[in-house]
Amino acid sequence: MLAVVMLAIAVIGPDVLAQSGKQRFSWIVTKKLTVNNALVMKGTTATTGAATFASTVVVTGNVTAAADLAVNGADLTSDDLTFGLLDVTPTLINLGGNAALNIGKTALATTILGTANFDEAVTMDTSLAVAASAGFNGAGVTSDDLTFALFDITPTLINLGGNAALNIGKTALATTVIGTFNVDEAATLDSSLGVTGDTTLSGATIMASANTMTVGATTETPVLRIGATITEGWEIRVLEDSLDLSTASATEMAMTTVIPTGAVILSVQTNNDTAITAGGTSVDVSVGVISGDVDKYGTNTSLAQNAKIDTIPTHAVLSGTEQIGVHATVTGGASEGDTNWATGTFRIRVTYMALNSLDNI
To answer: Do 248 and 321 touch, CB atoms closer than 8 A?
Structure first.
């Protein structure tokens, strides 16, 4: 017996059979079977010809198609929570053909077990998690999101580039590295490099092909150190202040940081960021030592905006600490004037060299 069929149908098939009503029988289809109503098959049904079903077919056992299976409807569905499609023998499965292919559902995770190869572009509505190695053979990995996170959860070491040169960022856009950044080979920067922490350059030779290197933009910043560590050795340091002269309580106003004993002052530069006004005998602006030589580092006879002082003094080791400041002086800058400033903003920048003692053992 090949099949047991419970049916309430009209069966039309040339040279096969014609039955109506509710029957229980065994049958073999060798040509064509057309079913116009419901058909419930509970045993094995073999057909060597075409079978056409105009309504729902319920199969309580397995269905084996020895040739191609064509599904002309919109969906292939299952009532089971786990559905296996072609999961036994095939080693290569082609999906999609000439059509776009959607895998998974929005807000649900889609898991690919094994290697996944994509010959064309892949669009993901949510995140992509890769449990093993991933190879991208295309020219780029892109995102429409303004913020794109790559490997930002678990990895403690990420290797990028391999045997290839590596471009990070884009011309005219800032690239921020959060944390320690180690470069084992040469690094080329198309734009500026801003470092907010300590930087160690361990190459045998450090070269700059730029015409200008700008360093030391903030107060008390060592812009150059020659030493075995970042805390010892010979340093060049920078002090910079912007002073609101209208708040001065006397005809002198000090910088906030004192130059240490043993330092050598290399340069003193100033600018009147805004025009300066005073009165009485206070007609010049001088830079010197607070409660000392008022014009040691220069005098500006102009109080106009952007008037400047640029001084490289005779280099001498300071025998004691020195606090540099700006003074309202008489003509020529020889001494203090008699009137405080009424208005004015004064920028002052001092570069000096000093020694940091060698580290303790």
So the answer is: no
Q: Give pLDDT, residue 347.
A: 96
The whole domain housing 20 covers: 5-59
Contact between 311 and 345 (Cβ < 8 Å): no
**256 in a structural domain:** yes
**The domain that contains 340 carries what CATH number?**
2.60.120
Cβ neighbours for 152, distance < 8 A, ≥ 6 positions apart: none
Q: Name residue, tokens 């470092």.
A: 195
Which residues, in sequence order, are CB contacts of 7 under 8 Å at separation 6+? 19, 22, 23, 35, 38, 39, 40
If one counts the domains in the chain, the total is 2
Burial class (CB in 10 A: 0-12, 13-18, 19+), 276: buried
Among 32-46, 90-104, 128-142, 180-194, the minimum mean pLDDT is found in 32-46
pLDDT tens digits, 136-163 = 666 777 777 777 777 666 777 777 766 7
SS3 313: coil
- Separation of alpha carbons 313 and 352, rounded Å: 11
At residue 306's C-alpha, the angle toward residues 305 and 312, to 5°, is 140
Query: Residue 15: which pLDDT band, with cuts at 50, 70 and 90?
Result: very low
pLDDT class of 184 with cuts at 50, 70, 90: confident
